[in-house]
Amino acid sequence: MRIIQGGRMLAAVVGGNLQGIEAAYLAHKAGWEIILVDRRPNAPASQLCDQFVHREITAEDDLKNLFRGVDLVIPALENKVALECLDNWSRTTEIPLAFDFEAFAVSSSKLKSDRLFHRLGVPAPLPWPDCDFPLIIKPSVGSGSRGVKIINDSGSLNQYLDDPPDSWVLQEYVEGPSYSIEVLGLPGQYSPLQVTDLQMDAGHDCKRVLAPTDLSEALISNFEQISLSLAEALKLRGLMDVEVILHQNVLRVLEIDARLPSQTPTAVFWSSGLNMIEMLGELFLNGAVSAAAPIIYPKGVVYEHIKVSPDLIEVGGEHIISGADGMHLHNDFFGADEAITNYKPGRDEWVATLIICEQTRETAWEKRKAVISGIQKKFKPAIYRDSFPLGLNF
């Protein structure tokens, strides 16, 4: 692996929002130095790096000086213009770019992804009109829960059918617990990583990641095989996240993302010790990833987002973090092992991502309850809210 003076690797992370937080956090855990670039002057990850550059990526000509001396560039954003610039720049440099643009072009479109699932025979929610109500409608492009709506009857559906946008996906709404897995590698050399459990808020935005998973060994094996078949079909070069829902004891694929995900890599790191950023760097710098030792007894982890105001403590999805100002790392945060937060003494409104680890998932949850209780005692809000999608309470 290429290293800089002083024995540390220098990586550039482009994008300072949710994926940028993940990249900067795990890169520091790997002992790397980080330059982070974002168009916002106070992006959430702007205080989690060694050097922050306030810049919008609009032309590849600007990148030669920006990335001078860098060993690896990690895109941590989904902005089309910026990604096109990085793609064009990567063709003229020897600095590795840890991204698979061809796989991302498929995974970033739910319409293209759904066609891939159908071609491979991968279980997935049925499309309209081959299903009954309730339905879910979501943008074809974009991640997270933005624009997602539940449709319960034909009257609500008509407003979309009268003028249906080509960029929407309309399919059956299936209930059940959600799970995620990452797969890393090159064609013929893929490794499925640790399965994690996802919990959503009322808006179907992921608010909490739990590890180790509660899936049976048979379903874990099934999930791994699904992820490997998708990676091979995409000829993936890098890292991909696969999200499923367990409905009537069948894992149905909701979406894939051929990019660095947010939330789950940190939960996996604390549970298993696997650092996906370090593994991604090794893959793009050396062309392969060293075999990891088997993980026999993963630790229990609770990873969740909270928003605190004078009247309310709310556990919420990623949206409460994405709009925050600069975050910093805080150890032993009200009893949590670590927190990524913009909290400062005297601040009335703040957000935090809590990272809680114990020997088992059950003891981690008990510790998490004590953390929330400590925050409640300190700030004395009138309301505590931890919502789930309607009808779900896992």
Description of the molecule:
Helix content is 29%, strand content 29%. The protein is α+β, with helices and mostly antiparallel strands and 394 residues long. The chain folds into 3 domains: 10-99, NAD(P)-binding Rossmann-like Domain (Rossmann fold); 101-120 and 175-394, D-amino Acid Aminotransferase, Chain A, domain 1; 135-172, no CATH class. Strands 8, 9, 10, 11, 12, 13, 14, 15, 16, 17, 18 and 19 form a 12-stranded mixed β-sheet that branches. Strands 3-2-1-4 form a 4-stranded parallel β-sheet. A hairpin with an 8-residue loop joins strand 17 (336-341) and strand 18 (350-358). The longest helix is centred in the last third of the chain and has 19 residues, at 361-379. The relative contact order is 0.13.
CATH classification class of the largest domain? Alpha Beta
CATH architecture of the largest domain: 2-Layer Sandwich
Q: What is the molecular shape?
A: globular
Question: How helical, in percent, are the residues?
Answer: 25-40%
Number of helices: 11
